[in-house]
């Protein structure tokens, strides 16, 4: 299995869930921009599950030498790369903040996804799991830069799923709502609408095994976002969401 964004609590919870369920991986490739943190997780799954892994440094903000990844073969790719950025008005007009949000969540991430998608296509098997966001379902004033990047990523995963279907490769789009993670620490999240990483992992694993196309981590979010998507624009533009 390939894990992009392996410092993510959701990614790590998914790896553990898969191993607990008896999934067998010759090796798990843990791509990370924080090698020290990821090495601790690698040691953890080695001790707990006797699972061999390899930690690979990957910084999306730097030039990537794809030749270094030629030897990697896998049947599952789990992408949990994400960057929320600064959502305040000051952050909105900070171009460095805006560029980082767009780069990490979409423009620098897609070429990496494509590289491994091509490997899956050539082998004509496998599953690609991408964590997008409900923020991409409709632009809202509170986080529309982040939401726009996730909307692009959702569209990319949809197109990739359509393209790879005939090549026997499945693509699952996951849309978490509020998540209790380091990325959202300090935000005023409604506990009834917030999932833990373990809850998310269980939902994603179930969707993975059922070969679902799109999965909301908490079912309530599919209803919430259906309502938000269908609010007429002349009303929606006046709301503070």
Automatic annotation (TrEMBL):
Pfam families from the xrefs? adh_short
Endpoints of the signal sequence: none
Q: Transmembrane ranges?
A: 214-231
This protein's UniProt keywords:
Membrane, NADP, Oxidoreductase, Transmembrane, Transmembrane helix
Name the Gene Ontology molecular function terms of this record. oxidoreductase activity
Keyword check for Cell inner membrane: no
What family classification does the UniProt entry report for this protein? Answer: Belongs to the short-chain dehydrogenases/reductases (SDR) family.
| Name of the molecule in the record | 3-oxoacyl-ACP reductase
The organism's taxonomic lineage, starting at the top: Bacteria, Pseudomonadati, Bacteroidota, Flavobacteriia, Flavobacteriales
């Amino acid at each position: 299995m390939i894990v992009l964004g392996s410092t993510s609590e959701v990614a790590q919870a998914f790896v553990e869930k898969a191993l607990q369920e008896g999934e067998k991986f010759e090796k798990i490739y843990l791509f990370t921009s924080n090698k020290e943190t990821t090495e601790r997780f690698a040691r953890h799954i080695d001790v707990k599950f006797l699972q061999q892994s390899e930690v690979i440094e990957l910084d999306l903000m730097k030039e990537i030498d794809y030749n270094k990844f030629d030897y990697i073969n896998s049947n599952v790719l789990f992408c949990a790369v994400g960057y929320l950025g600064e959502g305040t008005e000051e952050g909105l007009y900070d171009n460095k903040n805006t560029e980082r949000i767009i780069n990490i969540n979409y423009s620098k991430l897609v070429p990496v996804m494509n590289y491994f998608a091509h490997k899956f296509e050539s082998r004509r098997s496998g599953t690609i799991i991408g964590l997008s966001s409900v923020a991409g379902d409709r632009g809202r004033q509170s986080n529309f830069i982040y939401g726009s990047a996730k909307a692009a990523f959702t569209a990319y995963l949809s197109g990739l799923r359509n393209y790879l279907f005939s090549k026997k490769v499945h693509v699952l789009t996951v849309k978490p709502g509020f998540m209790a993670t380091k990325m959202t620490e300090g935000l005023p999240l409604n506990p009834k609408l917030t999932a833990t990483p373990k809850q998310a992992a269980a939902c994603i694993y179930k969707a993975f095994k059922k070969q679902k196309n799109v999965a909301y981590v908490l079912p309530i979010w599919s209803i919430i976002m259906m309502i938000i998507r269908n609010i007429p624009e002349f009303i929606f533009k006046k709301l503070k969401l």
